[in-house]
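**Backbone shape codes:**
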Amino acid sequence: MGETITDIAKEFALGFDELPTTEEIVSYLCHLLSMNIYLISMPLKQVQEISNCPGPSYARDYTATCPESWILQANGTCWGRGYRGPCESMHYFGAFDQARKEKFVR
């Protein structure tokens, strides 16, 4: 039990070290704000052209239990230890059909 707590503490420490600094967050938010102001000032057609970027030119393979680099857990969930996207890093992809897996990628 003590070993598990130590492992969890190490994971939290690793995660904390990867958090951005306040200065980095402020800089990023200022960048986003300036981008939004720029996009708002553009004609709508140009914004649509920028927003509709094509996806990959290859067909993705959704047959694997977990996405590449994710770890399959004993309970059947997939853990994206290094995942930094907008969704949770723990999912049960076994219940996802191909359409739902494709939606998760977006």
In short: The mean pLDDT is 77. The longest helix spans residues 22-41. The chain has two domains: 1-53, 56-106. Helices lie at 2-17, 22-41, 44-51, 98-105.
